[in-house]
Design goal:
It is a single chain. The chain has 2 domains: 7-64; 71-279, Uncharacterised protein PF01937, DUF89, domain 3 (Rossmann fold, 3-Layer(aba) Sandwich). Helix content is 50%, strand content 12%. The protein contains 12 helices and 7 strands. Strand 2 (152-155), helix 8 and strand 3 (176-180) form a beta-alpha-beta unit. The relative contact order is 0.15.
């Protein structure tokens, strides 16, 4: 997915929000906004928003000297998500289709996005997603391919979302490699966050090698790219991973909520819609 003109004011808004979390020094924040604005001259429309976001958040780190401005918010969201885990397990257990319920819960967790959607109510989101129709519904293909596959590559998105991913991973009952960001970017999941989510023995956590807010393959490690290209079943969570990978011809299932007009238009859906979209490799 390419960058659209509407992305540029969003980048500036994200830089301001991250800058205010990173420092109270308004001179530094003004410098940050000036430098991000100047970067727009060199950010081509052909690059994905995730590629551009990587440059923006690197600039936040460079100017403020704060490598993880969202750290405290991530910790609060993680504790809230872990508190919901027992009830989420009960919802899955009493569902007619437990796998479908787990998929819906995993997508509900995708609302925890501090880059685009910093104002959300996760409990209301769960209630809504459990009954909402998919705007793109490839669940049958998902279920059929899961039955045939030996293992799953699961591309993580946001930190607290890992708890919701855990629900789905436990329900799939397959060995899973769970790929996280190499370093903090926005509230995306790192190894530390995955550890807090409490995965069991079936899950192997790896770094994708990138600090982009999405799986931008050209910035990933050689080891991860080898894993990606040999994987027979890939779950891609969230908008950032969709932005980075929507042009790939791999066995990917995109799971997300469309939280901005640009991504929604690219998918052919409305803002707020939930998506389970297959790309056949």
């Amino acid at each position: 997915m390419r960058t659209f003109l509407e992305c540029y004011p969003c980048f500036l808004s994200q830089a301001l929000r991250a800058g205010r979390l990173a420092t109270n020094d308004e001179v530094q924040i003004k410098r940050l906004l000036d430098e991000v604005g100047a970067m727009f001259q060199t950010i081509p429309l052909e690059s994905s928003p995730a590629q551009s976001g990587r440059l923006i958040y690197r600039k936040v780190h460079e100017v403020t000297a704060n490598p993880d401005p969202y750290r405290q918010i991530k910790q609060r969201n993680m504790q809230q998500a872990l508190g919901l885990y027992p009830e989420l397990k009960k919802i899955v257990a009493r569902s007619e289709d437990s796998l479908l319920a787990a998929v819906r819960i995993a997508i509900a967790g995708n609302v925890i996005d501090l880059g685009v959607n910093h104002d959300f109510d996760i409990e209301k989101e769960i209630e809504a997603v459990l009954v909402k129709s998919f705007a793109v519904d490839d669940y049958k293909a998902f279920k059929d391919q899961l039955q045939r596959t030996r293992s799953v590559l699961y591309l993580a998105d946001n930190a607290a979302e890992c708890v919701f991913d855990r629900i789905l991973i436990e329900e799939m009952k397959k060995p899973v490699t769970f790929a996280v960001r190499d370093r903090p970017v926005i509230n995306d999941a790192t190894r530390e966050d995955a550890a807090k989510a409490g995965f069991g023995d079936r899950v192997t956590v790896v770094s994708s090698g990138t600090d982009a807010p999405g799986t931008v393959l050209e910035t990933c490690s050689r080891e991860f790219k080898e894993l990606f290209y040999r994987s027979e079943f890939i779950i891609s969570k969230g908008q950032g991973n969709y932005e980075a990978l929507s042009g790939q011809h791999r066995p990917i299932f995109f799971m997300l909520k469309a939280k901005c007009a640009v991504v929604a238009a690219d998918l052919g859906v409305a803002v707020g819609d939930i998506i389970l979209k297959s790309i056949n490799g």
